[in-house]
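Q: What residues go here?
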């Protein structure tokens, strides 16, 4: 790899893969109805990842769901929280979602790059915890 490319990548920490999918593969959580990874600390977080050739034993992936909808259908909150009608029970229109982000970015141009949102993660049962574990604990 050319020296310029290496320093460019290191400076910007650019990746061509999804960090939350890497986190899923690494066993850190399960995907919710909102398409976010729900870990033991919920889905209000940012994942980062890097690749290595180091041989490491894989962690087991959790088998149990972490989303109440996928677990027993007892929650659909993320659908109503989604701005712009991009998320439905059986579909997610990622381009529609991104259009809302781009619209907001234009509106708040003084803040710089702002093409991410996160409103669907706020104030829902899985924001800061694994709600299935809590529900199961309360039932038992
Ligand atoms: S808000 Fe409810 S339905 Fe949406 S991802 Fe979280 S637990 Fe699942």
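A:
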């Amino acid at each position: 790899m050319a020296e310029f490319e290496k320093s460019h990548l290191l400076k910007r920490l650019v990746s061509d893969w999804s960090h939350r999918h890497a986190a899923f593969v690494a066993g850190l959580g399960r995907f919710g109805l909102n398409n976010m990874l729900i870990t033991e600390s919920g889905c209000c977080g940012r994942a980062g990842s890097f690749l290595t050739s180091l041989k490491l034993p894989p962690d087991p992936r959790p088998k149990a769901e972490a989303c109440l909808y996928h677990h027993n259908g007892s929650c659909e909150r993320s659908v109503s929280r989604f701005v712009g009608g991009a998320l439905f029970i059986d579909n997610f229109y990622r381009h529609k979602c991104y259009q809302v982000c781009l619209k907001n970015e234009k509106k708040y141009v003084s803040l710089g790059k702002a093409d991410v949102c996160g409103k669907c993660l706020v104030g829902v049962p899985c924001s800061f915890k694994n709600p299935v574990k809590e529900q199961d604990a309360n039932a038992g």
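A: Context that may help when evaluating the design: The first strand starts at residue 30 and ends at 31. Residues 3-52+63-139 form one domain.
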